[in-house]
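ok so I'm stuck.
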Amino acid sequence: MNRHRGRRGAALMEFAMALPFALTLFIGIADFSVYFWRQTQMEEVARFTAAQIGPLATGYLAADEAGLQRYARLLESDARAAFARKNLRIGLSRHYACPLPTGAEESLSPDPRGCPAERVYLRVTGDENLEPILRPLRAMGYPKSSFWRHVIRLR
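replied:
not stuck anymore, here's the structure
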């Protein structure tokens, strides 16, 4: 009978020694699952934002810098309401490129170039801060935010 008690105690010690490692592993998996889920949600926000921009493309094309910032705040408030994301930030910037005879184009520039058939792009960015459940993951390279970056051709 004493022999069985010794085995039971050894199994309890093994469990006690393995439990912190197993919990750390499972919480880490949960943290990264939440991160990837948030990335998927951010792509949904990007689709929503692109759908909002589409019908008003000429307005985005003609807006000055202050107008672009107003559009960004409007998109941000709409996306926050639609997706219940209070820390969501959306930014807009316009970029220009001249087409080359090969069909390619020069690199994007924030300033208009004035070339014939100049292409105008709207860069739309969004991000939201993330905090892992397991704090040591931050030191190991856990992402600080979930984000998206897309470029929409306006003209």
